[in-house]
Amino acid sequence: MKSFLVDQDGYYGEFGGAYVPEILHKCVEELTSKYLEVIESKEFKKEFDQLLRDYVGRPSPLYPAQRLSEKYGCKLYLKREDLNHTGAHKINNTIGQILLARRMGKKRIIAETGAGQHGVATATVCALMNMECIVYMGKTDVERQHINVEKMKMLGATVIPVTSGNMTLKDSTNEAIRDWCCHPADTYYIIGSTVGPHPYPDMVARLQSVISEEIKKQLQEKEGRDYPDYLIACVGGGSNAAGTIYHYINDERVGIILAEAGGKGIETGMTAATIQLGKMGIIHGARTYVIQNEDGQIEEPYSISAGLDYPGIGPIHANLAAQSRANVLAINDDEAIEAAYELTKFEGIIPALESAHALGALKKLKFKPEDIVVLTVSGRGDKDIETYLSFNEQL
Predict the structure, then answer these.
(1) Final residue in a domain of this structure, among 199, 219, 247
(2) Which among 60, 75, 112, 239 is annotated as catalytic?
(3) What subunit structure does UniProt give (predicted)?
(4) Residue 224 CB partners (closer than 8 Å, separation 6+)
């Protein structure tokens, strides 16, 4: 049977690898040689599991959404990553990476952030472990996510607004990589998604795989079987999606549905739908699908959701799409907003704009009444209230 997981060279099929400047070669090599040995050790697992339980509040609930199930004609469960400490799935990864950084003797932590959730999660674990924290965030995102910016500062992080490009996630990642190039010896870069050079896509997927590990146990308890018929998650870089599908990736009984950001429509040029529009290229150290023009220049992406506003996609997901293992749907801004309001009114849960894209996929799918569907609510919507309200005023 074909495996969709990473090979020993850091590739998922033809996607992945490590394309880094010479100055970072040693850092990436060091990380590649150590990450598996550390994260598979008993000591690491014990500390990681204890922090996930006592600090993050795991396991996160698998909630049977009764009213949405009736509407969409299936048994719909919501994996509630929004209930984690800091309000999203991002903390699963930052706790794992800060433990690794500490074991590698690094003292200075840098990160990039879009919606601010990864920035907050990084600042949180740096406060916990008493480490210096610098977060790069596009100026556009600083303005639309100012509550998360204030949280990061309160936690002791230095937030650096990035003014290049369209001042969003791609640009903050560029700046974080520049910083890493200038301080390779003492700095550990906590990447927030399944993007970047190997071993980051694999490492982030493994740390987030606690999501699907829990889904297996929770479904066994609730349904008497440990697999769903469908898994649904939003995908930008792809960390919550990778965590949701990790333990099912080679199980062909399970359909995988990924929802990417359609923006104002894939035909408008105002979009971040990388799978629909991307061509093979290299971005931030990995070979993957990239939204680019005929000259190979990266196009500026657009999404109402700061966390999905990225012109690339994690190589794990590019490969799943290329091999037709995942069905990737583009969900437009208005479809995501409508789905968010529906979840709020039907189930009393206000989702993050990113998660709202996964919810927007439900209308585009047909289910049988006996189908078991698990949809990951990757984060809570507190950070997006102003966007929701301003969009609502326009309706």
Answers:
(1) 199
(2) 112
(3) Tetramer of two alpha and two beta chains.
(4) none
Residue 233 lies in a domain: yes
Element (H, E) at 286: strand 286-290
pTM of this prediction?
Answer: 0.97
pLDDT in tens, 219-260: 999 999 999 999 999 999 999 999 999 999 999 999 999 999
Do 362 and 246 lie in one domain? The reply is: yes
Marked catalytic residue, from 69, 75, 81, 90: 90
Question: Alpha-carbon distance 18 to 29, whole Å?
Answer: 10
Question: Is residue 316 domain-shared with residue 333, that is, in the same domain?
Answer: yes
Structure tokens at 178: 């520049």
Q: Report the distance separating Cα 58 and Cα 121, nearest Å.
A: 15
Q: Are 168 and 140 in contact (CB under 8 A)?
A: yes
Same domain, 142 and 232: no
Tell me which DSSP letter residue 246 carries.
G
Distance CA 199, CA 45 (A): 19
Catalytic (active site) residue 112: yes
Residues 281 and 334 in one domain: yes
> With a cut of 50, which residues of the chain have pLDDT below it?
none
Continuous segment of H or E residues that includes residue 12? strand 11-12
204 inside domain: no
| Domain carrying residue 108 | 19-52+90-199
CA distance 361 to 38: 37
106 is catalytic: no
Is 60 tagged catalytic? Answer: no
CATH of the domain at 329: 3.40.50.1100
The whole-number pLDDT of residue 273 equals: 98
67 and 98 belong to one structural domain: no
